[in-house]
Amino acid sequence: MNGVALLATFGLIFIAELPDKTMMATLVLSSRYRPLPVLVGVCAAFLVQTVIAVAAGGLLRLLPQQAVLAVVAVLFAVGAVLLVRESMAEDDDDEDENGRKVTGFGRIALTSFLVLFVAEWGDASQLGTAALSARYGDPVAVFIGAFAALVTIATIAVLLGRVIVRYIPLKWIQRGAAVLFAIFAVIAGYEAIFG
Fold first, then answer.
1. Neighbour-count burial of 109, counting CB atoms closer than 10 A to its CB (0-12 exposed, 13-18 middle, 19+ buried)
2. Where are the transmembrane segments (predicted)?
């Protein structure tokens, strides 16, 4: 296994994901739901996406970027609307004393998986992982480096989500996330239209 490929991949993916939409999505999910099932779902999504990126290698770059960006823009726009609607809902009957929705482990993990799985399509870290896999020719090292970076970021986001929800009302976190999702939708839409 190529240690340089592993370390280079970890560093690049870690830096790419720090300010990324997937970290924000994980932070929002962990502020809304119990952290362990969120982390399990998010890590499962990262596992699948990393396998796909490594397996695709450089071929992933051949997909029409505008189509991917258009779908991402629509998904983030829908996500923004849903977050705003949820933040304005007055029905708190299904929440615990911390304002978190009471739901089973499996449902939270599946929700987290689906949100992150969709958010990662066409993401810089996915494309970067594919490019690094093609460049280094060591899919195992690239997989380990990328997956380790993604799990590290997810863990940081889950821990931050637990702290933030203690000081900021959930509805404001959701509204802030909705603004971020709307910004990501506009950026992806702009890139889809104007390249």
1. buried
2. 35-60, 67-84, 140-165, 177-194
Terminal Cα-to-Cα distance of the chain (whole angstroms): 37
d(CA 161, CA 37): 13
Residue 40 to residue 69: CA distance in whole angstroms? 27
pLDDT in tens, 7-24: 999 998 888 787 677 888
CA 115 to centroid of chain Cα atoms? 7
pTM of the model: 0.68
Gap between the Cα atoms of 35 and 186, Å rounded: 29
Cβ-contact 21, 160 below 8 angstroms: no
- Give the contacts of 176 (CB within 8 A, at least 6 positions apart): none
Distance (Å, whole) CA 38 – CA 44: 10
Q: Which amino acid is at 32?
A: R
Q: Taking CA 100 as the corner, what is the angle to CA 178 and CA 45, rounded to the nearest 5 degrees? A: 65
